[in-house]
Design a protein that fits this description.
This protein is of the alpha+beta class and about 260 residues long. Helix content is about 30%, strand content about 10%. Strand 6 and strand 7 form a beta hairpin. The longest helix has 19 residues. The radius of gyration is 19 Å and the shape is globular.
């Protein structure tokens, strides 16, 4: 199956359930009872698929300058082989969705609200969307129609008269300092207030500056990745990238920059 990095695994469940129904141990299992795992690790369904792949697949990230000659498609990483379950829901690790999809909808909208609040100091943007716009946004996410998604999302990203206060950024750390990819479902997620400019100045804040401030042990240098590399959408992000520019061009559908880290061996 080819599936967009920006989308979410639960949207695959109805058609996968239809395909596998004749083979299910429990034929009464509903589509929303399905869950995915990779190497016995339950995958968090509210994380975008691309983020999950970056965190768990072990695939080497691409380098924008083409300097990494080891980044080639591999039978060990593509296709990404996941296990689909319709029994034994891992309740200690995953919240279970409902038949109507309300749990998934609410999880996504709450993430959008949080990002909206960080950007503008208020969540009025998402809260004041018309019913038609709200419906169009969610339907576009479900069906992965960027032509329908972008006009509504732009209203949130470029709120009229509201200067950008903070960049919604989450950093996902490997489960152990020496691991190149997490080995358990317990990820450490670092989140803090990241301003678009260096505080007290008009100098644009770079990703290297933000990482040095948030994780100085892993990023002792603001300019050069020494111990870890930041990865976004499957590619290493230059430390000189301005965080506001990344937000405008590379945010996930919920308005966040979901940044993975790959340790440098």
């Amino acid at each position: 199956i080819q599936y967009p990095r920006l989308s979410y695994l639960p949207f695959l469940l109805p058609r996968l359930h239809t395909f596998f129904t004749p083979f299910l141990i429990d034929p009464t299992a509903a589509p929303h009872e399905g869950w995915f795992s990779y190497e016995d690790v339950p995958l968090k369904w509210h994380y975008p698929l691309g983020l999950l792949y970056d965190l768990f697949s072990g695939a080497p990230p691409a380098h924008p300058d083409g300097s990494d000659h080891d980044h080639t498609p591999s039978s060990t990483t593509l296709p990404w082989r996941l296990t689909l379950h319709f029994t034994d829901w891992p309740g200690e690790q995953l919240v279970q969705p409902d038949t109507e999809g309300k749990v998934l909808h609410d999880a996504f909208i709450n993430s959008v609200k949080e990002a909206d609040f960080l950007r503008n100091g208020t969540a009025k943007g998402i809260m004041s969307l018309s019913k038609d716009d709200s419906t169009q946004l969610w339907t576009a996410v479900q069906e992965h129609k960027r032509s329908d998604f972008d006009p509504v999302f732009q209203k949130l990203l470029y709120a009229q008269g509201a200067p950008l206060r903070h960049v919604p950024l989450k950093i996902y750390l490997p489960s152990s300092p020496s691991a190149s990819a997490p080995s358990s479902s317990h990820l450490r997620v670092v989140q803090s207030l990241v301003t678009p400019c260096v505080q007290g100045t008009k100098e644009p804040q770079t990703l290297g500056m933000a990482l040095h401030t948030l994780l100085p042990t892993l990023f002792p240098s603001r300019k050069t990745p020494i111990l870890a590399k930041p990865v976004l959408h499957g590619a290493v992000v230059p430390m000189s990238s301005q965080v506001e520019g990344l937000l405008r061009e590379a945010a996930y559908l919920d308005g966040w920059l979901h940044l993975g880290l790959v340790m440098i061996s």
